[in-house]
């Protein structure tokens, strides 16, 4: 389904409440990343102590944990971080709602962290764009949609949609 061919009500179904869901998902993901970094830091600290300091340079990998968390989550089967999954969101290509490709996921993730580095105010662009897309969504060609709405719109005719609990004639 291309963006130009999709009626406005499809956009509204796909992204209804997505901004607030994205905010909640970001809070969950920040907590999970913090726990992951803390656990990894403790393991690397123990490794550094056990190797009499030789393992301490491995702590240089800790800043890459959030980037890998987001990138690997987008490239996973759900195309969403665990926080996004909890809030029924998925990251999809804007033109056909397929899962993102590797290059799109890298651009999306880098753009997200660049946006956060600039105080995060650029995220307010989502209030004024079609499908409530942020700058990193626009640059990467991706959109964050509600999974149940996407399943309902893309279900083949004559099928039962388990996620939405409805019949598609």
Could you explain the architecture of this structure?
With 169 residues, the chain is mainly alpha-helical. It has one domain. The protein is 51% helix and 9% strand. It has 7 helices and 4 strands. A two-stranded antiparallel sheet has the order 1-2. β3 and β4 form a beta hairpin. It is elongated, with a radius of gyration of 19 Å. The N terminus is likely disordered.
Short description:
The chain is mainly α and 169 residues long. The protein is 51% helix and 9% strand.
- Helix content range: 40-55%
Radius of gyration: 19 Å
Q: Would you list the SSEs in sequence order as H and E? A: HHHHEHHEHEE
- Major sheet: 2 strands, antiparallel
Number of domains: 1
Look at the structure and give the mean pLDDT: 87
Number of strands: 4
Q: What is the percentage of strand-forming residues? A: 5-15%
Question: What coarse outline follows from CA principal-axis ratios?
Answer: elongated
> Would you identify the regions where 5 or more consecutive residues have pLDDT less than 50?
1-5
Class by alpha and beta content: mainly alpha
